[in-house]
Amino acid sequence: MPKKLKVAVTGAGLKNSPDGREGWAARAHLPALKRLSDLYDLVAVCTTHMETAQNAARHFDVPHAFDDVEHMLEALPDIDVVCCSVRPIHHYKVVSAALRAGKHVYCEQPLGISTSEARAMHALAKQAGVRTVIGHQSHYEPATLHMAELVREGFVGQPLHFNHTYFVANYIVPRPSHRQWLFEADMGGHPGYRSGHSLDRVMSVLNRDITSISADMTVQVPERIAVDTGGVIRSNQVDSMNYLLRMDGKTGNVMGTMQTSFASWYGTGNHFEVYGTEGMLMLSTGATPEWNKHSGKGDPARGELKLYGARANIREYVADPTPPERLQNQYREIAIPKRHYYVDGMQRGRGAFLVAQTWHAFAQAIHKGYECAPSFRDKLKIHRVWDAAEQSVDHRAWVNVDYSGIS
How many CA atoms lie within 13 A of 367 on its CB side? Predict the structure, then answer.
């Protein structure tokens, strides 16, 4: 049995709500790590204010609280892993300190607010010889894992085209005033950084890099009500992204569309269709479970992803021709094998479950010495896609993605 990894979580303040729902680290990372007590020893939390760090430490029974990352690393030199779950503008400072101290790093997305920051952190990680993972927690959603597996096994034949949509209401609903930072472009860096989870899914499931892009990005909803003050929260952060994508490769070319909108009332969440020479696969978000925000449970379920698919039987269709119209919607739900469920006892569809799945995969990578997907290298590729998207918007043209310098 490998030794438990000692982990410290930054950005884990318990504030603005009694159950921590306003902070991703307190809502997802800390419960996930406590659940994985056979793999991890959660030894410290760190925020910019000692009071919030101490509150979180008491609430989750964590032995140490800090208000400075450098101080934490000096005081607890036996930390194995640092989790960076702070605002994107602070990722570079926290991650660089952890890497210089020789720690493995789990960093929420984006890797930095610029490609140059992402490139520097990737280089530091290589130099330190440590393992890294990016917080694209939906990467380890069981239905997504099985979809990627089936594509690799040839379920759809040669992939031809795809469509990915992600519709949520994060940037249109009234929000509390302390969430103002979410709507400030400087805090996230790349205008399209909110498309990161979708890009990771497309690239990982199809096991290909995006080679060229035609993009449009805009702020559709420039303001919303601040629920606590009655004032207005204004935004210059892109909330809607439309991409035409090409993925060229030795085994053929794939083309597709991707629409990511954070300004969609009652959004349908994730929907991903892949069509190939021999069939199709589709991910779709199921019904959202009921949730009472006064229940004290700050991690509401968003609805489970379900996988559907169908394979073509060419001989059957030649022997008994079927009108194409009769083939529409002739797919079935595909059961997800138990091997894709790494974590027991947590409700699927909650953020904490997906984060726990990622932490489980990360522990295996650290102990066995292989790169954990999506790694800093994988994320640097997505930063390059964002660079190309910005150039496409500026020039109103297709732009090739430049992956030069990424081994």
Answer: 14
Closest-CA residue to 170 (of 298, 260, 272): 260
Which amino acid belongs to residue 32?
A
Outline where 18-90 has alpha helix (H): 24, 30-35, 50-60, 69-75
Tell me the mean pLDDT in the region 370-397: 98
Whole-angstrom distance, CA of residue 152 vs CA of residue 54: 47
Q: What pLDDT, on a 0 to 100 scale, did the predictor assign at position 388?
A: 98
Could you give the C-alpha distances from 68 to 8, 45, 49, 93, in angstroms and in order?
Answer: 12, 10, 8, 11
Instruction: Tell me if the pTM is above 0.90.
Output: yes
**Amino acid (1-letter code) at residue 150:** L
Report the 10 Å Cβ neighbour count for 170: 15
Mean pLDDT of 365-392: 98
CA dist., res. 349 & res. 303, Å (int): 5
DSSP H helices in 154-188:
185-188
Q: Which residues pair with 275 in a beta bridge?
A: 161, 280
**What is the C-alpha separation between 193 and 208, in angstroms, rounded?**
20
Examine residue 110 and say whether the peptide bond preceding it is cis (omega within 30 degrees of 0): yes
CA distance 180 to 203: 31
- Rounded to whole angstroms, the Cα distance separating 171 from 396 reads 25
Q: Give the DSSP letter of residue 29.
A: I
Which tokens sit at 8? 């410290």
Closest among 299, 287, 401 to 350, alpha carbons compared: 299
Mean pLDDT computed over 325-346 = 93
CA torsion sign, 51 to 56 to 61 to 67? negative
- Strand arrangement of the beta sheet that strand 269-276 belongs to: 332-333, 305-311, 279-285, 269-276, 159-167, 254-261, 240-247, 212-218, 399-400
Q: pLDDT tens digits, residue range 224-246?
A: 999 999 999 999 999 999 999 99
Q: What is the pLDDT of residue 15?
A: 67
Tens-digit pLDDT profile for residues 248-307: 888 889 999 999 999 999 999 999 999 999 999 999 987 777 766 655 466 777 778 999
| Percentage of residues in the chain having pLDDT higher than 70 | 96
* Burial class for 278, CB neighbours closer than 10 Å (0-12, 13-18, 19+): middle
Q: What is the mean pLDDT of residues 328-351?
A: 92
Residue 124 CA, chain-centre distance (Å), reads 22
Q: Are strands 305-311 and 332-333 parallel, antiparallel or unpaired?
A: antiparallel
**Residue in 378, 376, 343, 379 with CA at minimum distance from that of residue 358:** 343
